[in-house]
Specification:
Blueprint: E1 4-5, E2 19-22, E3 27-30, H1 31-34, E4 39-44, H2 50-66, E5 71-77, H3 89-99, E6 105-107, H4 112-116, E7 121-122, E8 124-129, E9 134-138, H5 154-164, E10 177-180
Parallel strand pairs: 4-5, 5-6
Antiparallel strand pairs: 1-10, 2-3, 4-8, 7-10, 8-9
Length: about 180
């Protein structure tokens, strides 16, 4: 299993806008409509990556905890479905339902959104404040498949708590590690 790190988009970057189909509702949605009142977590994931599978329950737990506090969670898959059909929109919907996602799971067929966010791997996490300025990017936590560390979401959770408390977010942020985005 190859490991690819995040590109670490510069803090303060404004979230690139998008209009993408939500595989759960079959509707086109925009960042403007989905963003949270206090912040937004945009995460690049996919169905087949072992790194994503390893943290799916942590992601679902964090979303259920923080959505009620004004934080939106927005998942995007940008993988090439011709060569990776297990990441097709139909199977994305199935995965979302099986995993109990309480957030949209969007399909970026053109891969333009992944490029705009400089996404490199799955999972790749971005936390934006209520003005859609990037305040955190990087790993969920130190857990990886096979390393024996329990996934708690510590790094992202610490950033979320700081954002909600109007405290500074630690600028020392570790890149996420995961499967590379499957570019066309």
């Amino acid at each position: 299993m190859a490991s690819t790190p995040s590109n670490m988009m510069p803090l303060g970057t404004i979230a690139p806008d998008f209009n993408l189909p939500d595989t759960i509702t079959d509707k086109i949605v925009s960042l403007d409509k989905l963003k949270g009142k206090k912040g937004s977590v945009i995460l690049f994931i996919c169905n087949h990556c072992p790194f994503v599978k390893h943290v799916n329950s942590t992601i679902t737990h964090l979303a259920s905890k923080y959505q009620s506090k004004g934080i939106a969670f927005i998942a995007i898959s940008s993988n090439d479905i011709v060569n990776y059909p297990q990441d097709s929109p139909e199977l994305m919907k199935q995965t979302a339902l099986q995993e109990g996602y309480s957030f949209p799971y969007l399909f970026d067929e053109s891969q333009e959104v992944a490029r705009a966010y400089e996404a490199a791997c799955t999972p790749d996490f971005y936390l934006f404040d209520n003005d859609l300025r990037l305040v955190y990017r990087g790993q969920l936590d130190d857990s990886r498949p096979g390393n024996g560390i329990l996934s708690t979401g510590l790094d992202l959770r610490n950033a979320l708590e700081a954002l909600l408390s109007n405290k500074p977010i630690n600028p020392i942020q570790k890149p996420s590690i995961g499967c590379n985005i499957k570019w066309k």
